[in-house]
Every structure is written in structure tokens, then in C-alpha cells.
Amino acid sequence: MSVIAILGRPNVGKSSLFNRLIQRSAALVDDQPGVTRDRHYGRLTIDDREGWLVDTGGFELAAETLASPINEQIRLALLESDLVILVVDGLLGRHPRDGELAELVRKADRPALLAVNKIDSPEKENLALEFHSLGFSSLYPVSAAHGLGVATLKEALYPFLEPSIAEPDENSPPRIAVVGRPNAGKSSLINHLCGQNRLVVDATPGTTRDAVDVTINMMGRPYILVDTAGVRRRGRVSEKLEKLSVLRALKSVEKCDLALLVVDASEGLADQDAHIAGRAFERGRPVVFLVNKWDLIKEKKEAREAFTRDMELKMAFLEKAPWLTVSALKGQGLNRLWPLVDRIMEQYSSRASTAEVNKVVQAAVEAHTPPYVGQGRLKFYYATQASTRPPSFVIFANRPDAVHYSYKRYLINKLKAAFKLDLIPARVFFRARHEDWAEKPKKKSEPPKTGPRKTGASKTGGKKAGSVKSQPKK
From the centroid of its chain, how far is CA 54? Predict the structure, then answer.
């Protein structure tokens, strides 16, 4: 598909325009300059045509730590683009850096449109006139925040897009979220797998802020890698922007097919790694641990033994999740990753017939009879697999609410062993049969009989007040 790149200075509204054009909040937006740092891709669809829209960081020449890597990402986006949208700030007026960017676009010999942003009313359209001096033949006053003028801009983008091709969901590539604590090496890992500096990498923790999708091809198969911001403990997260970044990272875990949890080998497993892995496990997502920077400690036998102990203690709930020792910077050990990912995705998408599921459950019940509940025993009528990704089974029982957790765990282990699901989580749900759902009408209890109470002598023989003296027997 064609590629349309959005360029501009910091804080001119590039990410807001990006979100407006793709019609979803895919890029982080904040008043603080420099929020976007990597190239962020989104699918742009206009009527029956589509293409890739690329959001980039703010172009700066100041001597800042990340200025040069961000500018490099802008240049790479410019080189791969078929069209450039140069965004300027209509309220602040023309800036010298706008002219430098315009000259950069002309040298790249790319067709370009000029979007004068923050024109949020027709009365302000005259503010766009001074930008004609940049030399662009096509100028579009827009308001990314309110949508004014965006429809006209879309009409100009339409000829640069390609006809849409419907793609079946079942053929969509696996979506793999790369998660972990800050500075664990997530972006370095994706850059090595891409074979280029696709993402900004810096020793400063928190370099990655947004969740960035990267499509790669390995061994003839496509995969979507999602680079996420580092997730710190909640008590250490104070800035609003970092909170949004962490929220995006955790949502990426919920929407992925597989979570690659990158761990710094020099620091070992932390409680925060267990929290991230637990989040994925609760959503039924398989987890693979990548112990990064292993080349720094690979000579130490104690390190492997310590990591093995930590996996057994802190990650016992993951049912022996696989882990690989790698070096993202040097590429060591990464050749073992993709065969493992393919095996996991094969299990993740597997489906068993109802007859096979019933046979496994029946054998499990015969081997270990379910316990009594009240005056009767639990009964399992039949079972079936309801869905995949992850494999989910439904077992119909007479008392679904009374199945103990330990027996549920027993049935899950039997199903996983029977269908060779050793690398992924599986889920089992208990349901009542249709005839068990209807509650039997309760018998109406008879109201207590009411009437005048009999009065008489007390058991002690004394007379009650107002009682009549009884006649002696003859």
C-alpha cells in the first residue's frame, strides 16, 4: 500500500491529525512537546481506498539527547513515503524550522501537501495566508482537534491511496506484544528483528512512550510486533504522560495473541515482571520470557540457576512458561524464537471435536470421581470446545457453581495433556443444562394460625390477673 508521512515541528498537532484521519486514538496526544518519538503507522481508509499513514516525531535541530534519533526517524519516513503532509501551527505563524522542513521535503522530491493546523473557525482562515511563502501549491486550513477542514484534506489524499483488498481475519498475522520494565531492551530487540533502526533506542529509561506496531517477515511469514512503553510499579508512576503510556502497554497485552516479556538478565526477575505476566495470563494470553543481555552474564552458572529458581517461585501460576536467553543488541539466541512462536500459535489456534473433548472429560471423571456436594455428587453431562485463542472448553454440570477450584484445575490439566497444549493457557467454564436453569416453584408456606390465646393458671398454680377460679372436682 502507499505510504503517507506526516511531518512537522514539535507540538503543531501531528498526532492529533493522525488520530483524526485514521478515526481512532492510536497515537498519544499531550501538550508537552516531544511525545511522539518513533514512526507510528496506522491504516488510513477513505471510501474504497486505503494506505499507511505515518506519524513522526517533532523535527528539531537543538542539541538534545533524543533530537538526532528522532530526526533520523523523520528522514526514514520521508524516504519511504509516497506523499508528505507538512503540518504547521496556524496560531503561532510561520517558524524558521517550517522553512527548513519544507526544503527537506523538496530535496527528497516527494509530492507534498501543507496542512495549516489549529484553524478552528472560518474567521481564522486568513491566518493560513502567510504560509504560502513556503512554496507549496496545495494549502489546507484544518483543525485536527475539531475536524474543521479535514474532509477537504481527505479528498486531496484520496488519489494517493490504493484500492482496498479485503483480508480474512483468520489469515491475519499473529500480534505479538513486546512488554517489560523500562530499559530492558524491547526497542533494541525489534530493531534487530527488523534489520534497521525502526525505533528510537536510548539508554534513558522511558524512551518509548507509545505502543508502536511494526510488521516484519520472518521465514516467509508475517508477524506484527507491538513495541510498548516500559511498565514500572504504580507507586513510581507520577506523570500523566507516563500513566497513559503504561495504560497503552497493558491494553496491548490484552489485545495481543502472544506476549514477549523482556527481562534484563543483569537485574533478574522482579515483582513487576510477575504483575505483567499475570495480566497476560488472566486474559488467556501465552507468555514467552526473553532474558535479554545474557551475553553479559552467560559465563556465570549461578545466574542461570538463580533465574530458574525465580521462575519456579514467582511465575508458578504460568504453568512453566518457556524462556529463552538472548542478546537483542547482538542477535544471539533469537533464531530459536520464531520456531517457538509458531508452535505456540499452532496450539493457540487448535480446536478439538466435541467427541474428543467428551472422551477426555469422561476418562478424567472415571479416574478421579468428583466430590459430594451436599447430599448428592457432582455430575458432568457433556463437554465441548467453545472457542480458540485461547482454547476454551465448556462443561455442563448439575451444580456448576459448586465445582471446587482444585477439581477445575485437575480437568484443565487433563485437557491440556490430551490435546498437547503445554505452551499456552487453557480455560474451562462450567454451565448448567437448560433444564437445570429453570427454578422449581417453591411451595407457599402456610401463614401461622392466629386466634385468641387461652388464659389460665400458670404451671406453678398461681392465679393470673383477671382469671376465673376453677371449681374443685367432686
Answer: 21
| Distance (Å, whole) CA 26 – CA 43 | 10
Cell (9 digits) for 311? 521462575
**Residue 435 has which C-alpha cell?**
433444564
Q: What digits encode the pLDDT tens for the residues 99-128?
A: 888 888 888 888 899 999 999 888 888 888
Task: Determine the Cα–Cα distance for residues 276 and 272; give it in Å rounded to an integer.
Answer: 6
Q: Identify the CA nearest to 278 among candidates 246, 250, 240, 307.
A: 250
Going through 90-243 in order, the beta strands assigned E by DSSP cover 112-117, 139-141, 162-163, 175-180, 212-218, 221-227
Helix (H, G, I), strand (E, B) or coil at 346: helix
Amino acid (1-letter code) at residue 180? G
Its pTM stands at: 0.58
**Contact by Cβ (8 Å): 85, 91:** no
Q: How confident is the model at residue 38 (pLDDT cuts 50, 70, 90)?
A: low
Mean pLDDT over the full length of the chain? 77
The predicted-structure confidence for 217-265, as pLDDT tens digits, reads as follows 887 888 888 877 656 555 444 455 445 656 666 777 777 899 998 888 8
Instruction: Answer for the pair 18, 97: CB distance below 8 angstroms, yes or no.
Output: no
The secondary structure of the chain in percent helix, strand, coil, rounded to multiples of 5, reads 35, 20, 40
CATH of 3-163, one of 3.40.50.720, 2.130.10.10, 3.40.50.300, 3.40.50.410: 3.40.50.300
Query: What is the rounded distance in angstroms from the CA atom of residue 21 to the CA atom of residue 115?
Result: 13
Q: For residue 408, how far is the Cα from the chain centroid?
A: 27
Per-residue HEC secondary structure of 248-300 comes to HHHHHHHHCCEEEEEEECCCCCCHHHHHHHHHHHHCCCCEEEEEECHHHCCCC
For CA atoms 302, 304, 307, 312, the dihedral sign is: negative
The owner of cell 491566518 is 127
Q: Which CATH architecture has domain 354-437?
A: 2-Layer Sandwich (3.30)
**How far is residue 8's CA from residue 115's CA, in Å, rounded to a whole number?**
10
CB atoms within 10 A of CB 427: 15
Q: Are 90 and 118 in contact (CB under 8 A)?
A: yes
